[in-house]
Design brief:
mainly alpha, single chain, elongated
Length: about 120
């Protein structure tokens, strides 16, 4: 499918040595497929649950992304690819996000009474 983002053999050869092996858990899904799907989600901006079924289960993709993020795999991967010359120093992956409460736009406590200028002068 042309809209999918599959890693080439050359790209996978650079990434594969840095992917964790022999992890405990349920039947292992192909790491190349998972990384391809993560790249697809990050490039297109779609939600994890809207990831194409060709990549595999969306929960597996998200859980793997989250687990590897906690283990700093992505930062280590960029460092390794930069050291090997596969990418330049200007390459970056932004994995940050900001949480805000649904009413974070307003101040705390509602409206506060303010004195008018004429009342302040009258005192």
């Amino acid at each position: 499918m042309p809209h999918l983002c599959w890693l080439s053999d050359a790209q996978w050869a650079l990434i594969e040595p840095h992917v964790p092996k022999n992890q405990p858990g349920a039947r292992c899904v192909d790491d190349r497929r998972v990384i391809s799907s993560i790249i697809h989600v990050l490039k297109t901006g779609c939600r994890w649950c809207n990831c194409t079924a060709d990549y595999g289960p969306s929960t597996t993709i998200y859980n793997r992304f989250n687990r590897w993020s906690c283990r700093k795999l992505w930062a280590n991967l960029v460092e390794a690819l930069t050291a090997s010359g596969a990418v330049t120093k200007s390459t970056s992956i932004d994995l940050t996000y900001v949480k805000a409460h649904r009413s974070a736009h307003g101040g705390k406590g509602g409206r506060k009474p303010r004195r008018s200028a004429s009342r302040a002068v009258a005192r």
